[in-house]
Structures are given as C-alpha cells and as structure tokens.
Amino acid sequence: MDVYSQSSHAGGLVARGGGLHPPPEVLLNWPKPNYVDPEERGWAAPIVLLMFLGVTFLVYVARMWARIAISKNTGLDDILISLSMIPLFGLTIATVLGIRIYGYQWHSWDQTTETLVTSREIALAIELLYMISTSLIKVSILCFYRRITGRLTHQFVYWVYATIAFCVIYGVVFTFVILFTCTPIEGFWRYFDIAWRIQNKLVCRDEGAIIVACAAISSVQDFIICLLPVLLIWNLQISKRQKLALCGIFGMGLITCFCGLMRTYYATKLYYFTYDITWIAYYGWIWTNLEAQLAVICASAPSLKVFFNRYLTQYTSRDGYTGNLSRGNPPEVASKLASNAFVSKQSQFSSHKSQIRGGDATSSEEIPLDGIHVNHKLQISIEERDDSSYKSFESTKALTELPPSHQVWRDRIEWAESCRNVCAAFRPGSMGNPGIRSREGDIEAGRAI
C-alpha cells in the first residue's frame, strides 16, 4: 500500500467517525424518532447566557462612561468595541434560539423536517455573527495596545500592527469562506431537505475542516493577544508587584483563550467523532458565545479602574470619614463636624488637585504610559483628648476666660495678672509703647479690659 492510499484510508477512518453524513449502519442503530415527548435541554444554559450578556453590557457601559464622561479620552478602540456589541447581541439571541427552539435542544434522531432546516439556518447565523464580533473585539484590544505604548518601543508597535493585519485578514477571509461553504448559499440550510436537494444542484466544501480551522486559528490569536502586553510590561522600569498586577489585568484574557480551546474541542468532536451533531453542537455554541462575551469584559477591564476610582473609592472614603468623626462625639456634634469637615475637605481637594500632562494625554483621570498623574489626598482624623491634654486645655482656658458677670473684676486680682501676661505674650511690642503700658496698668488695676 503506497503513501497516498494510506493517507486516504486514514482520512476515511476520520470521516466515518462523525460528521454530517451518518452511514446506514449508524442510522439503523439510532433510536426511533420521538416527536411527542423527546429528550431535550432545559432553560439553564439560555438563562446563564442572557445573564452573562447583561453583565457584559454593564461592563461595556461602565467602560464607555469612564472614557467619555470621566477621562474624556475616547479612541478608535472604543469605536470598535461599540460596533462589536451589535453582532454580540445578535450572537447571544441566535444562540439562545438555537439551543432552545430551533433544534439544538434535541438529538439528531428526534429532529423534525422543520428543525432540520432551522438548525442549519441558526448555525450559519451564529458562525457569521461570531466572526464579525470577535474580529472587531480583537482589533479593538490591539488598538488599545497601540494607544498606551505611544513611542515607547518600535518593536512592540510592529508586533501590534502585524497582529492587527492577521486578525483583519482572518476575519474577512473566514467570514466569506463560511458564508460560501455551499453553492448556492441557500444549500447550507437546505442540506438535509431531501425535496429541495432533488430539484437543485448543490456543491459544498468541507464544512468540518473550515469550522475547525476557524476555531483553532482564533485560539492562536487569543494567546498572541494575551502574551503581547506581557512582553511590554516586563521591560518597564516598575516594581515586580506592579508588573504582576498589570500582567494579571491583561492576563484575564486567558479565560477567553480557554473558551476558544473548548470551542475548538467541540467543533472537532462534532465533525469527526459523532453523528449526533445537534446534541453535541449545543455545548459548542455555549462556549462560542461565552468566548465573545468574556472578550468584551477583558477588553474593558483596564478602563474599569478609572470608573471604580471615581465612584467606589469616593463613596467608601466618604463613609469611612464620617465614621471617624462620629467616634467619641455625641451624635449632634459629630453631624456638625462631619458637615463642616466635608465642606473643608471638598474645598481643599479642589484647590490642591493638580495634573501634569505628557505626550498626548489630556485626561485628569486616565493618563497613558507617556504621562504622569499626580493625586493629592487629604485624610482628617479627630480624636478625643487624653487626661493630660485636657488639663492643659483647662489651665490655658483659665488664663483667658472672663470672670462671671456677678463678680467684680477688681476682686479678681489673679485674673487681671494672668490677662496681663497673655496680652504681653501676644503683643511683644507692647512693653516699649507708653500708651499700651498705661493700658496694661489699667488692666492690672482692674480698671479696664
């Protein structure tokens, strides 16, 4: 047996292990179709996907609010991530419909003539929406990398541009390849429609090879995008703790990489290791959707720091500040102190807020790596007097406190003497001024204040 025949035999073994064309012996072993009460998936996965979509949308809103309202520093990456949200919503809706209504909730042997068509329609929609949304998200992340580097390193910029070109070419090519898997295009979802196939000529390429290659290349791109910032951060002149923190933020994309690997695994299993395609594709569509949603969350993670610094830290510090004021003071006193101190804190903060702009940075909240951001914070703590300080305060108070109104000042010789000392202390030039000295004599004698 020559090499060609061996490779053909190996390919035949793989093809017989699964795919869209179950052999007769497999069809004979399938259970009898159950169109009344078939085994089906529940609502757990659709609910989880919709909840994830809600979280993803909130993260996106927080990101855009931080960029537009707080830092006023939007860029091309924000435009691309905004565009990606449109197909992402469509992807989630299509996935929910597919795994709950359009056929992927049942086994292949329980499919009706209607779901044999709708399952293929929704599959094509999911694949195309996935390609568009994830390509936009990846390019958005890479544009953000280019934005924060400035002119730090030309080598890193070249890597970013090369990866952008890779993602754009991949997205465009595979979008059209998937769309034109079958000629005519309608043949993709009419693939199992026997009546239509009899009346129309259909030519289809190797769908399994296309989808598996698409998923595998996407996973490779995810790993490249996650590793690029690590190479940049590790060469920065910052502490190891800061490096690890930044790597952790950008390393969140590894979760997306895991989802991409699971998508590749189920795509391979679907087309090469099982004929129950609708039952197994159920898991593949879930991982496909999670990959796209988590990509948006990871892409927005750096901007969330600005959002939380503005709102979460502000509320936390305000609550803690009021709590310190109320400790050891009566409620009414603590309330007045908190009110006055808050006003004082606000005015001092506004007068001391400073900013140093560098490069193209114009934001007071989010400064790229080529800028410096200086923050001044004020912390006030009011504590109770101890016994010694309280006694000192009482002795000082006795020196300057006026005598009771019912007593004659002339009889308060000790008060006059102390008042004279205080006046002399606060007016050191008074001893050389005759007018003032006579005034002091009157005070000492108790004739005037």
From TrEMBL:
Protein name as annotated: Rhodopsin domain-containing protein
One Pfam family this sequence matches: Fung_rhodopsin
Transmembrane stretches, start-end: 43-66, 78-102, 122-144, 156-180, 209-232, 244-266, 286-308
Main subcellular localisation: membrane
Keywords, ordered alphabetically: Membrane, Transmembrane, Transmembrane helix
Span of domain Rhodopsin: 62-309
GO cellular component: membrane
Compartment list: Membrane
Domain of life according to the entry: Eukaryota
Signal sequence range: none
Protein family according to the UniProt entry: Belongs to the SAT4 family.
Keyword Ribonucleoprotein: no
Membrane topology: Multi-pass membrane protein
